[in-house]
Predict the 3D structure of the following.
Amino acid sequence: MENYSSLAVKYRPSNFKDIIGQKDITNFLQKAIQINKIPHTILFYGNKGIGKTSCARIFSKSVNCINFTKSLESCNICINCKSNNINIKEIDAASNNSVENIRNIIAQLNYKPYIGNYNIYIIDEAHMLSQSAFNALLKTIEEPPNHVIFILITTEKYKIIPTVLSRCQIFEFKTISEKDIIDNLKIIALKENFKIKDEFFLEIANRCDGSFRDSLFLLDKLSLSSNSSDLNNQIQITNKHKYIFLIKNICNKDITKSLHTLNELLYKNTEYRYVIYMLTTHIRNMLILFNNKNEDICDFEEIKFHYLKLIKLININFIINAIKIMHECDINYYRSYNKKLHIEISIIKICAF
Ligand SMILES: [Zn+2]
């Protein structure tokens, strides 16, 4: 039997071109290698699952490649590419955050690389380093030996002390757009021979919060389901038509029907807050279309068609008020005692405008 590997592992990028949605950063790094102006202390920051660690590994391999190609990628076949693990040391600062851990690294720095030109130290979760660990690192990252590169990775840049930040070349990784997530999931689904309806890709993109890795976890789950009712259960897919129907009732200011549809949605979703998020997103999309009917809202044409019909029923102030109320509903969600009633009151307020 073939060994199972998750989609996130199977489709982990191995070249710059495979990294999704971070073109500015990959272009810069490729160019830096090409003209041999390689930064020695780098900080990658941004949300989880958007390519920081993959990019650090690819960059680390590429700086040592003997035949860096014309398309600005490592060749993957030279001796350095094949033995790149020797040069790359990955440190998880979540479990190695003490000053001793950093001193151990510093003690190794004078050793020249066994192969290639650089030893690379990737410090993941760098914000977890202790204050004294940061202090120990400070002098070193200011002027590392020529054969050393530090790559700090973090999701929480604000926790890294300013004196460290000021010594780093900083790259902000962007959250991946819905469109990029959907396009790439479709390519993977095709390769894997998964038969998945278009609406599920949108649902995944909505749920993964801009993290491509999370979207692959959800696609993994979907692929293990054999029929569409399983699919619904697996990721609690909710019917997008229900949201459209709810918004239609809201636009018609029909409180009874609105609450009835809301209850159907809440019944299917244990995550009430996700319903708030989805509803706000739908209303926001309508606002965008209100201003420009041709705007690309990253949704499917079918949904856009419904929006365009619904915005004829309301005016701009109604939409702005609805967004305001849903935003307050989201902010105060955890403080409310009866979550369901809390959402219901927001819907009633919107209808009553
Ligand atoms: Zn190579």
